[in-house]
Each structure stands twice: as structure tokens, then as C-alpha cells.
Design brief:
Layout lengths: L5 H4 L2 H6 L2 H17 L3 H10 L14 H11 L4 H8 L2
Length: 88
């Protein structure tokens, strides 16, 4: 963990992200992205944007590239790919 990061400044977030389930999900994202030849961020955003139970996804648009990533993720229309990301 980097000093000054949000995980350092808000230690409560560590319990959410630094756990086995989160590591398994990350490994699945890495594998699916590698097989699909797509960036991990694109697929992670696409998954969140296409979940019916998620009403809003906040995008940190500090640069135009961040917005481009969000638009690319929104354009992903591959149910089979989304299903691979959601497998437990």
C-alpha cells in the first residue's frame, strides 16, 4: 500500500478490497481481459455499467482519456463476455 493513498488514509476501505474474494475477482478480470484482448479497465467498467442492480457508476474523468475509457466500456455489448466476468 502506498503512503498517502486512499487505503492508507481511510483504513476502513482495506477490509472491502484486501480480501480473498476481491483477489479472485481481480484474477478473473485479468484472465478474461487477456483472452479477449481488451483493457482490464474497459471490462471492469463495462461490467458495472451493464448491471441492472447498479443505478450509477461514477467515472473519475480527470483527463479526456478517462472519458474515452468510459465510452469504450459503454459500447461493450457482449453478454457472454459479461457473463465470464460475473462467474463465481
Amino acid at each position: 500500500m502506498q503512503p498517502g493513498s486512499r487505503f492508507d488514509l481511510l483504513p476502513g476501505h482495506q477490509k472491502i478490497y484486501f480480501q480473498e474474494e476481491a483477489y479472485r475477482r481481480l484474477a478473473r478480470l485479468e484472465a478474461v481481459a487477456a483472452r479477449a484482448g481488451r483493457p482490464q479497465i474497459e471490462l471492469a467498467l463495462a461490467w458495472a455499467l451493464h448491471q441492472p442492480q447498479i443505478a450509477t457508476v461514477l467515472i473519475g474523468g480527470r483527463t479526456p482519456a478517462h472519458l474515452d475509457q468510459a465510452f469504450a466500456a459503454l459500447a461493450v455489448k457482449e453478454p457472454a463476455l459479461m457473463a465470464q466476468l460475473g462467474e463465481e
